[in-house]
């Protein structure tokens, strides 16, 4: 134990700011009063296994280090990023709603005259270190400073591929407001964001900023940025409602029945941004496959095709053993089978959900062929995960 504590202290000394800060004072008291906090940790709406153990962990390690598998987990050529310019975004959307996927889970949503930036990650690595950890597979479409004013930055949870220190530090010098899950404010204050710019919400709590209402809704995931993970920061999906439009961002989540409740309470949505990448049978409860993502989209819409689904959380970082292009290919297949409208933009290409949708499978030109059929077998049984299993890998979420 002494050696482990020494290692933890040494790693924190290397780059202490990236680990953030633990909640304390009134923030911690509020966490402990939350109906979703029990036995010293936030709990999921349904139980969730977060990582493999024993033999499964060994199998996963073999997948990661096998040369042919490593090649499939990255693009085979240069990702065709749209060179987004200020001119692309300067003219208001004709319909009142426009989405620009910046890669991974980062999305600029322009909704009814307001600009909302979800999970902005402009850093080169999703890691506490600038020399190790998952590195970007394509550049950001435009510099953060060229994005223009943002009314609200929404953070889904505090994993490195969603809450990025250099990006937050850059945004700390602006006037933007941050909508964040309960507990995450401790990190942002530690990094220089003024407390009066934080709107820190528990599940099913809402805040109104200008003419839009943002609600933190449940998700099935976990949290943490360091060697130990006390589950003291919440994870969330988010709904945003304007005068004319409604949108949903899933953050990271496994499939769960609560999508139906979210849709009944806050939907239907003109567009949903759904996590469909970094899935694996080794952690089936915390990330969705494309088929599960499509099921979640339909649940959110009351079971009927409605609005547009845009896949997120793929193509930008290598966080799982599946082939790089598989999430895009399988989402396209799942949408066709469901008869559902899906938007598949290149990173940086703005589109309006009510207009012509980007549906070209652009990834095929820069990836190896997908060998596996899109319908995956049921997740393999795994050993139960203990509280100690919730510790994060330092190099990123996975």
Fold and architecture overview:
- With 398 residues, the protein is of the alpha/beta class.
- The chain has one domain (44-367): 4-Layer Sandwich (Metallo-beta-lactamase, Chain A).
- Helices cover 23% and strands 16% of the residues.
- The chain has helices spanning 2-14, 25-33, 55-65, 67-72, 86-90, 165-172, 185-190, 258-266, 290-300, 326-338, and strands at residues 37-38, 41-42, 97-103, 106-111, 114-118, 152-154, 177-181, 198-201, 206-209, 212-217, 237-241, 246-249, 271-275, 308-312.
- The strands form three sheets. It has a six-stranded mixed beta sheet, with no helix packed on it. Strands 9-10-11-12-13-14 form a six-stranded mixed beta sheet.
- Helix 8 packs parallel to helix 9 (290-300).
- The longest helix has 13 residues, at 2-14.
- The two termini are 24 Å apart.
């Amino acid at each position: 134990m002494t050696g482990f504590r020494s290692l933890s202290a040494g790693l924190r000394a290397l780059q202490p700011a990236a680990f953030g800060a633990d909640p304390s004072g009134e923030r911690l008291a509020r966490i402990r009063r939350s109906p979703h906090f029990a036995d010293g940790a936030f709990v999921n709406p349904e139980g969730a296994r977060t990582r493999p153990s024993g033999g499964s962990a060994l199998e996963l390690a073999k997948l990661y280090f096998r040369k042919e598998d490593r090649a499939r987990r990255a693009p085979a050529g240069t990702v065709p990023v749209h060179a987004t310019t200020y001119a692309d975004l300067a003219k208001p959307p004709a319909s009142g709603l426009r989405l620009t996927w910046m890669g991974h889970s980062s999305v600029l949503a322009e909704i009814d005259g307001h600009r909302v930036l979800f999970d902005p990650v402009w850093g080169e690595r999703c890691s506490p270190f600038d020399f190790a950890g998952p590195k970007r597979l394509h550049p950001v479409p435009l510099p953060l400073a060229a994005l223009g004013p943002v009314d609200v930055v929404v953070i889904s949870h505090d994993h490195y591929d969603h809450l990025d220190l250099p990006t937050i530090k850059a945004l700390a010098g602006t006037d933007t407001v941050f909508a964040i899950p309960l507990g995450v404010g401790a990190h942002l204050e530690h990094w220089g964001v003024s407390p009066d710019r934080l709107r820190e919400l528990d599940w099913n709590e809402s805040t109104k900023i200008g003419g839009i209402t943002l609600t933190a809704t449940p998700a099935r995931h976990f949290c943490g940025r360091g060697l130990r993970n006390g589950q003291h920061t919440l994870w969330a999906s988010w709904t945003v409602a304007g005068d004319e439009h409604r949108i949903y961002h899933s953050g990271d989540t496994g499939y769960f029945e609560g999508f139906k409740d979210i849709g009944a309470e806050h939907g239907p949505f003109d567009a949903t941004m759904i996590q469909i990448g970094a899935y694996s049978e080794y952690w089936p409860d915390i990330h969705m496959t494309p088929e599960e993502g499509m099921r979640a989209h339909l649940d959110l819409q009351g079971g009927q095709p409605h609005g547009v689904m845009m896949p997120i959380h793929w193509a930008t970082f290598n966080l799982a053993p599946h082939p790089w292009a598989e999430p895009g290919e399988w989402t396209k297949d799942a949408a066709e089978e469901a008869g559902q409208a899906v938007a598949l933009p290149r990173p940086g290409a703005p589109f309006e959900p009510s207009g012509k949708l980007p549906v070209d499978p652009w990834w095929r030109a820069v990836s190896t062929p997908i060998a596996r059929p899109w319908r995956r077998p049921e997740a393999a049984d795994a050993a139960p995960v203990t509280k100690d299993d919730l510790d994060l890998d330092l190099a990123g979420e996975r």
